[in-house]
Amino acid sequence: MASNRTGTLVAPRGRWWFPLGKDEKLWFAMAAIWAVTMFAMIFLIWPAVGDNQQTFGGYRVDETEFALLTQQFIEEHGTGENLFGVPVVAPPPGSDVYMLATRYQFRPVVQLQRGETYRFLFSSNDVQHGFSLQPDNINLQVIPGYVLAVEMTPEKTGEYEIVCNEYCGIGHHLMLGRIRVVD
Amino acid sequence: MEALRAGSWRCQVTGLYVDHSAEQLIKFNAVTAVLYLAAGGLMAILVALTRWEAIHILDDAEWFYRLVGAHGTAMLLFWILFFEVAGLYFGGIVLLNARMMAPAAGWAGYILMLAGSLGMMVTMLTGRATVMFTAYPPLEASQWFYLSYILFAVGALIAVVVFLVNVVGARVRGEVQTLPLFTFAMLAAAIIALFSLISGATAIVPLWLKSIDAIDYVDPGIYRLLYWGLGHGAQQINLAAMVGIWYALATITVGTKPINEGLSRFAFVLYIFFIQMAAMHHLLVDPGLGRWVRTINASYFIYAAVLGSMIHAFTIPASVELAQRTKGYSRGLFEWLKRAPWGEPGFSALVLSFVMFGVMGGISGVIIGGPQLNMLAHNTLTVPAHFHMTVVSGTTLAFMGITYYLVPLIFRREVFQPKIARAQPWVYGAGMFIFGIGMGFAGHLEGVPRRHFDIDFAGLPMANGVFDNARVDLFLATMGIGATLAFIGGAMYVIVAAGTVFLGRRSEAPDIGRVDPEAFAVPAVSGASGEAEPEAHRDLNQFEAPGTFAIATAFLTLFVLLYAYSWFELSHVSWVIR
Amino acid sequence: MSLALLHGSTGGSFLTSWSPDPLLVNLLALAAVAYALGLRAAARRGRRRPSRWRIAAYYGGLAAVTVALLGPLDTWNDELFFIHMLQHLVVMIVAAPLLLLGRPVQVTLQALPPKQSSLLVRILFLRAGPRRAATLLTHPLTVFALYNLNLALWHWPPMYVAALESELVHEIEHAAFFGTALLFWWVIIDPVPRHHHAEPHWQFGMCFGTCMIGGLVAAALTLANRVLYPFYLDAGRPWGISPMTDQQLGGGIMWISGALYFALMFAMLIRMVSPDSSAANRATGAAPAWQLDQLRP
Question: How many CB pairs under 8 A join A and B?
Answer without folding.
Answer: 369
